[in-house]
Amino acid sequence: MPITKGFRALVDEAMAEVKTHTVPEVLAMLDDPKVHIIDIRDVRELKEGTVTGSTHAPRCMLEFWVDPESPYHKPMWADESKHFILFCGAGWRSALATKTLQDMGMTNVSHIDGGFEAWVKHGGPTETLEERKAKKGK
Predict the structure, then answer these.
(1) Is 2 domain-assigned?
(2) Does a structural domain hold residue 21?
(3) Which listed residue, of 83, 93, 109, 112, carries a Cα 20 to 30 Å from 32's Cα?
(4) What is d(CA 16, CA 130) in angstroms, rounded to the nearest whole number?
(5) Quick count: other Cβ atoms within 10 Å of Cβ 119?
(6) Which residue segment(s) compose the domain that 79 sits in?
């Protein structure tokens, strides 16, 4: 069966419909308690580090964690006062995920252009999983 719409077309469509932030814009929001940065990358990608203070919500579980009717629902997603900013490795998956969450009815969601790669290039704060675990242990 031939592919009638490739990933690039899907990403382009999503990018046209979602709010996209540059890394400098997100850096300026880091102290805002209403901003919640979400790492949607696969757990294997986390060995590269992650955005300091972000929450990991793997792309494969996102819809299930967001939907209150799901047995996997995570209550943090129901907080309408929060703004969830998603990121992935390069900004493609996060664009698709942001579009999906909008399709589910969320209006308080956006993503980071260029993903973790752009974050690192701009000198955004990162932490390793070991550093994160040490913080939680204190």
Answers:
(1) no
(2) yes
(3) 93
(4) 37
(5) 23
(6) 7-137
E strand residue ranges, 25-68: 35-39, 50-51, 55-56
| Cα 56-58-64 angle, rounded to 5 deg | 110
Q: How far apart are CA 56 and CA 16, in angstroms?
A: 25
Residue 26 token pair: 């997100």
Let me know: does 17 contact 99? Beta carbons within 8 Å. Answer: yes
How far is CA 81 from each of CA 7, 35, 78, 120, 129, rounded to the nearest angstrom?
A: 32, 9, 9, 28, 28
Least Cα distance to 94 among 37, 24, 134, 27 occurs for 37
Q: Report how far residue 138's alpha carbon sits from residue 136's, in angstroms, rounded to the nearest whole number.
A: 5
- How many domains does the chain divide into? 1
**Domain of 128: which CATH number?**
3.40.250.10
Domain annotation covers residue 64: yes
Residue 100: both structure tokens together: 């999906």
For residue 86, the cross-strand partners are: 38, 111
